[in-house]
Amino acid sequence: NYVGMFGYTSAATIANANVTGSVNGFDFVGGIVGKTNALSTVSTSSFTGSVTGNSNVGGIVGWNDPSTLDRIFFEGTVTGVINVGGITGWNDGSAIHGARFSGTVTGDDKAGGLAGENSGASDISNVIVSGNVTGATNTGGVLGTNTATGAVTASYWDTDLGGTTATGSGAGAGTTGLTSTQMTQESSFVELDFANTWRIYE
Fold first, then answer.
1. Sign of the dihedral defined by the CA atoms of residues 44, 76, 9, 147, in that order
2. CA angle at residue 84 from 67 to 91, to 5 degrees?
3. Which of 28, 104, 154, 168 would give a disulfide with 35, using CB separation of 3.0 to 4.6 Å?
4. Prediction pTM value
């Protein structure tokens, strides 16, 4: 349990961590952090490769609780059973501001291109998800399940790859589904900041 470049963080700041490889564990498994806690921050960081576990499995963080992920990128495969997400397995009362996922998410219950489960006062904005997401129950292109009281805004996913449902269960407001062709066009992302944060080469 608690497997990643950092297994567990408390009030930590991680920046410019760009990691390539494979991470394997059981619970709380992430490419960079197994579990964040106490207002930790992971920013301007990426992971390329594979992350495999059982529960709370994410490309960047296994369980984000309660912390902030800012301008992060994952490319590869994430595989688990429950609470499996391209960026984080469980986003619990936490913020995700600027995230990009490209790859494959495979789970059984609560599987999502961004997060398997989103709960509490979580705040999600400026997200692009382009990948295959498969699961048996509570499976969505962006979120597996969403019970959060916080807002989801400016979040986009590829419907050709991730399916036509933004969330497997719960609210899907603030998400926009695009075709693979639209995902290559800057004009499709009307809410994203292309002057300072994002760039698409058409």
1. positive
2. 20
3. 28
4. 0.97
C-beta atoms surrounding 108 within 10 Å: 17
Cβ proximity of 176 and 155 under 8 Å:
yes
Q: Tokens 């807002």 identify what position?
A: 151
Per-residue burial over 12-35, b = 16 or more CB atoms within 10 Å of its CB, e = otherwise? bebeebeeeeebebbbbbbbbbbb
Question: What's the DSSP call for residue 3?
Answer: B
Neighbours of 43 (CB within 10 A): 16
**130 in Cβ contact with 157 (< 8 Å):** yes
**In this structure, are residues 60 and 30 in contact, taking their beta carbons and an 8 Å threshold?**
yes
Nearest Cα to Cα of residue 105 among 128, 125, 75: 75
Output the tens digit of pLDDT for each of the chain's 202 residues.
999 999 999 999 999 999 999 999 999 999 999 999 999 999 999 999 999 999 999 999 999 999 999 999 999 999 999 999 999 999 999 999 999 999 999 999 999 999 999 999 999 999 999 999 999 999 999 999 999 999 999 999 999 999 999 999 999 999 999 999 999 999 999 999 898 889 999 8
The answer to whether 125 touches 154, Cβ cutoff 8 Å, is: yes
